[in-house]
Amino acid sequence: MSWRTAAILAGSLLAGCGPVTEPSPTPAVASAWDLPPTWPRTTTAPLVGPRSAVVALSAPAGQTIGEVVARVASPLEAAPGRELRSLPGLTVSVVARWGDRLSAAADSPWFGTAADYTTWFGDGWNADWSGDRLGSAPAWQGSSQAGWLWVNHEYFSNDPPRLEAPPTGQHLLLADALYRGGALSSNLLASRTAADLDTYLLAARRELGGSWLRAERDAAGRVALRPDPAARRYDNTSRTLLTVTGLPLARRAVDDQGAALPAGVVPGTAANCSGGQTPWGTVLSGEENTQDVYGDLEPWWGSDQQFRPGRGGDPGGPLQPAVGADRGALFSAGSHPALHRDRDWLGYVAEFDPGLDPGHYYTALRSGGDGRGHRKLGALGRARWENCTVVVGQDGRLLPGQPLVLYAADDRKSGRIFKFVSREVYQPGMTRGEVRGLLDDGQVHVAHFSDLDNSTGRRLRDAATPTAHRPGRGVWLTLSLGNQRQAAPNGAALGRSRLTVGSALADPSWNGLGGFPDDAMVRRALFTACNKLGVRELNRPEDVEWHPWDPAGRPRLYIACTKHEGGVVCDPEGRLLTGEARLAAPARSDALGLIWALEEADPAAPGRSGEFTFWAAWEGSRGPEAHHVACPDNLLTDPTGALWFGTDGNLDVNQTADGLFRLELDEHQPRYGEAVRVLAMPSDAECTGPSFTPDRRTLFVSVQHPGEEEPSAWPGG
Length: 717
Description:
Helices cover 10% and strands 25% of the residues. The protein is an alpha+beta fold. A nine-stranded antiparallel beta sheet has the order 15-16-17-18-19-25-24-21-20, with no helix packed on it.
């Protein structure tokens, strides 16, 4: 997500709306609210202006993208520009733009805004499955010519409409289209009413979530959207329903009409950033910055990681998270009840059963359900999830006889990396529903990079750069009150060296923070739990990807840390920084970012590994030349061993376009450690969501927020 967005979304949309931290009453009966007369009317007017889009980058017939890149004499030049540029020999085609219709029907859903994560399901991807029993993983099976593409939709750029101010940028594009389609009484430029603002916000919720669309590649390699009645949109309205598994909600949720939903079921998804494709044929989608759209459940942390007293996190008692809707957030700022949602309804890794009706929520086999449908992985917990990756073998399948293992990143300054390990193990022959049931129960662990220098987040404590031959070391801490085995990292500094993780979490005053009454609260507030223990802070960890094809011959986890220019939560010993100590503490000054390689102590059994080593696989740099690149974000692993990454912020650091890069990881290759620019974004767009077709001839990439700040007409049409 762009750094600009946090500032853009700050503040109330409606004059006089202040923050609300206490839950507002939830209707106990299924009585309908009065929605605006135009709701749920959709506009038929097209969007006009610079728009996010997903594109396909294709190699000539018989070649892969990687082979074309490997043969180039020099990478794509580093330069800003208003058009999309690619290496010679590659064909670029725009597959879908924000506002494109996904089917030919009059009420067709349309492609959403701020395209991000993509993943491909080629026709016949499950052809070798035995009914509902798992066969080959979808990533490298099925057709590369025709299939279904999933795309996440993350957020709106620019300024939303307020009673006292008109919309700008993307918000203006949507408002204008709604006005021309008859949904609004004006385009919100000259005048605005509370009713029009409510209608706008109700409509805007549909632009987030995910798209499931049909696409085909022609003989020339160009990929195009093919309208299909089976196309689907999963959005932030109650047309999309998901079950929160593994974590109880504060109270029962209601749909957009005010009707009570089944226990544990919540309406909609939002802030969908990156994600992952599972070997059982579903899509994992990180609900990242949900605090911007409905409010922060952990409001006791400021924008510069400082602790803010008097907001429910104070020492001396249990933590008191803010559950009710925050009227200063994007959607909850409207006056209509359908816009006010509890904060614990979002902020998860969502799992979609793509192609299934958006209203089909997940029911587990053990509860008498069919094991199908959409859900949110509450057992992993709540955070600002960038993405989630699944541990697999070199064949892309789950490891037999081992628990399911997920890694995920909390995308914020001072965020951490988490590992979920299922309580039960995967056995070959399991059905899809049985495999999905493994994620309903398990344990969450956090990576404590114990050798990492707290002042930089880039070097070891002796100031050396960690390398594969001299790596740093770390430990996985089990985040549970029952963990009476591991010592809290900040125990010695706070005078109790033998204090365990579990006791520290439960202590009502440990490290100047309130206590956790149970493991459910730990999962609700993972960032606070890590701060209470003094877990080493990272430089805004974004994408994490499991690499079963690493050239070293051992699987590794790769972590993109975009940057961190600001204060930290704790001092080098893990003590909470407050008062004079915080004022005296230096801010981190990492404007360039890096990519960590993490290797488990037992790479073949990551679920059993309690320790790991880490080192810098690549570091950002400053300068005007082609090899100067900064701020890595989304990652993509390649069966040939390479790593691909997009950037978010390189334009700000180097004044050259963000783009897509291929990083050679094989130390025996001449370009080892070199990041080769393959694609350059138009204007100030971010490069997100790269994914391959099975033959690796086509690579999908999202061009996010072109024209966010700089003028752009891309992609036209």
